[in-house]
Amino acid sequence: MSAEEADRKKNRYHFDRHTPDYRHQFEAITAEMHARCPIAWSDTYGGHWVAAGAREVFELARSAEYLSNDHDVNNERRGYKGITIPTPESMIRGGFLEMDPPEQRHYRQAVNPYLSPAAVAGWIPVTAELVRACLDEKIETGRIDFVDDLANVVPAVLTLAMMGIPMKHWTIYCEPVHAAVYTPPDSPGMDRVRDRQIEMYKDMFGQLMAIKENPRPGLIDALARALINGRTPPDLELLGVMTLIIAGGFDTTTALTAHALEWLGEHPDQRKRLSRERETLLDPATEEFLRFYTPAPGDGRTIAADCEIAGQQFKEGERLWLSWAMANRDPEVFPDPNQVDLARTGNRHHSFGLGIHRCIGSNVARMVFKQMVAAVLDRMPDYRCDPASAVHYETIGVIQGMQHLPAAFTPGARLGAGLDETIEAMQRICDDQRLAEPVTARKARADIAR
Amino acid sequence: MKVHVDPERCQGHTLCAMIAPKMFELDDIDGHSSPVDENVPADQEARVRQAVRSCPEQAISVSGDPA
């Protein structure tokens, strides 16, 4: 290494976010990097930069002209490796999150009218019904697993409904999407996950073909009709975009909800306060749980041109990890960063990313999370989680998630039909009222009066 | 006090409209924000300042304020 090179990489940190140690030592590692090297060079995974400081992450994430998200799977451009470090085996591009403008912008323009705050508001009554049914399945027993019985279910069913996939197919999608994240790649459980993934991709491809043939409203229809740089994208590229929407819509919201319910169970006074003051407190509390638990802890980038950003010189082709999770604990921006403050103000957290790639499902995530949490506060106000049976993801390199969160509560009375019957009823409403149309075609909220 | 949202910086995080719903409106199609009125009434100033501090993209600014 030349002297110049050594000087450029003088701030070094052995950063391996895929180890259990990173999860267990997260606060200590984060504090050390903030104090010593808010941008560091790490030799792990072929060598890459890590941005941990809030100011550094902010400046980098918003420098779209010097950063590329491109995943050039066929090596047709500059061979960039997309947003995952290390590069996964999959040869499917991860949708528009692994693209640069103008293609990225064209895709977002196609799907924005389905995911904007106005579009998402139309789905509130359906979401509330799905939440009600999930809780009704368990309310008489006094026991629930907040992950398996609630937080896995509602985001999955709703995401499929918005895409135009039959809601009852959620059972095909739910397990492989979550298990692909929490199952270690070389473990025996991975064979089952791969089998379930094949089943899921078969269904996805079938849905895409069916909707191309006979259009029905939803995100898939928007993708099938989209002109990206003046061309209709190949099916494989569209499957990548559908995978992005599914992966983005499922495990992240599940992770946020599970962690928030776990924390509220451990802090019954705060839970009471949130329930009592929810009209003013649920919004800032949601942002605080987003900040503190950062379900998607970061994104990779490739430096697209030599540049200096936040005082650091970068060379074209170098890889960079933007840590939303560590930036969210920077005391320069967030006083007492390792404390949950439900009423925190000035909470400009990074949990949905920054810049042109801001999480396009952020409005859905917030709405679904709030519906689930508020309903639990109403119907299971005294729940107690069982810490011995709660299962956190062993590593937090991809998603900071939970696999199980069992809880007990004082049993209550059912309010309506069970989940399967409710999904059928919501599907009829979805079809009859064309709920999955974009906001440009349909603005009214779902009418679920029975 | 006047408020300005830089449309080049705003990415539709929607926090401003959550904090000061009377002062910011969100585009139906992409959720990007713009001020309902650039002149901020006195009773909205605190909320608008909080929105400035909360914007992840630092897209909101205020001016003409002696305080």
Features of this protein?
A: 450 residues; alpha+beta; five-stranded mixed beta sheet; 19 helices; B: 67 residues; Alpha-Beta Plaits; two-stranded antiparallel ribbon; 2 helices; 22% helix; globular
3D structure, described in words:
The complex is a heterodimer of chains A (450) and B (67). The termini of chain A are far apart. Chain A has one domain (3-432): Orthogonal Bundle (Cytochrome p450), CATH 1.10.630. In chain A, a hairpin with a 2-residue loop joins strand 6 and strand 7. With 450 residues, chain A is an alpha+beta fold. In chain A, helix 10 (170-182) crosses helix 11. Chain A has a five-stranded mixed beta sheet. Chain A has a three-stranded antiparallel beta sheet with strand order 4-12-9. Chain A is globular and about 70 Å long. Chain A has 19 helices and twelve strands. Chain B has 67 residues and is of the alpha+beta class. Chain B has a single domain, classed as 2-Layer Sandwich (Alpha-Beta Plaits), CATH 3.30.70. Chain B is 22% helix and 21% strand. Chain B is built from two helices and four strands, in the order E-H-E-E-H-E. In chain B, the strands form two sheets. A two-stranded antiparallel sheet of chain B has the order 1-4. The radius of gyration of chain B is 11 Å and the shape is globular. The model of chain B has no long low-confidence stretch (mean pLDDT 95). The chains are: A alpha+beta (450), B alpha+beta (67). The interface between A and B is medium-sized, with 28 and 22 residues.
